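Troubleshooting: if your tokenizer reports a length mismatch, compare your output against this known-good record of 425 residues.
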Amino acid sequence: MRKSLLLLTAGFAIASASQAQKLGCAVTEKHRIEPGQTLRINGIDTLKKDRGLADNYYLWDNGASLNVKFMSGSKALQEKVKSLAKIWEQHANIKFNFVGPDEPANIRIMLGTGEGHYSYIGTVSNLIPKDEHTMALDTQDLEGNDAAWRRTVQHEFGHAIGLLHEHSSPVAGIQWDKPKMYEHYAKMGWTKEDVDAQVFASYALSYTNGTKYDNKSIMHYPIYAWQTKNGYAVAWNSSISDGDRALIGALYPKSGERKNEVPRFAVNNFGKLNASRNDQKGGVSFYPSFDIKSSGIPGKIYFCVLFYDEDGYGIEDADGNYAYGSTVAAVRTLQMIKGEQISFNKNGAKDFELFIPYSEIHLPDGDHKLLLEFRAVQVTEDGEIKFVHQSDPVTFKLSKKPATPQNSKAPVKTSKPKSVGTKKG
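Known-good structure output:
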């Protein structure tokens, strides 16, 4: 179990290998919260003018100054990226502050990776280890092609401030020729399920922000006539469209309030997850140390401690209680107002507890070496899980003694947890 479990990464090449520029992206996983205190994931998946899509839950604060740094690349290429990225500043109340390679940065760029082009969506970059890049630009693919440089840099920086792929709009109405697409991608080793998830899946209507489909968007990849049943095609878009400008101006307004605001949370200064037996209450108590800040509108956040065996497989929940998806977990919720900042379990205090009874940890009697992972997530009105924080796993030794017949059940290994972060290209 590693930090990379946050991500579901895959290549997405609408163009064939013989067609100019590479493409790359991944999908958002979609989940649902059931009533009550059980957090359960069900299934996978990530203004009346023409505009694009955005994930409002991962937008930066309006007026934010974002530190950006390069982790590789020549000075000349870095300057080219800077000039193209800053075009977004003309339309959005946001600033890219390019800093040196040894300074902390919100956006970290790898040039010349040879692995395609991609960027994490908005504040998802905050979940990535600080020594890892959050954006990749394949300079080998762009060499000698100014139009490709322009569209690629603007596209990836669009993702970096929260925009999504326009061809995945639920109102696009693209009539894909699915048999041809399945056959084409099978030559690349893709299964039908891969194509369904990476090409044909669309977002919930909320991502449109009430907008129409914009096939001129810089966030739209090309579509070739052979890929659709009606010959519909979209050429490469190499400039920010009128729709892009209107949308980004509404999400990062230079005056007035942001449109379609949602609850947004940030967990900072995470210390550690303290876990201890609580025989008085008949279970295990958890005291994670962290700061949390809310912005946007008031909303609810869920804190969870998930149980895995020492190989990183989730301990399967047996009764629908104390669970995150199908994995045993302690869960606690917190309602926060706009602008609220709270510190928990700092300086030896125990002022925020998560708890799970021994009877809900579905393991046989005996000694067990477990891995525990702390997560903070929120749930959208559409029932999607949005990651706020995920800790590195910590080891916990649990000795279960005979108490109830339930304790004698043998553990069932589930598949390793799938990623629920968002990575786009």
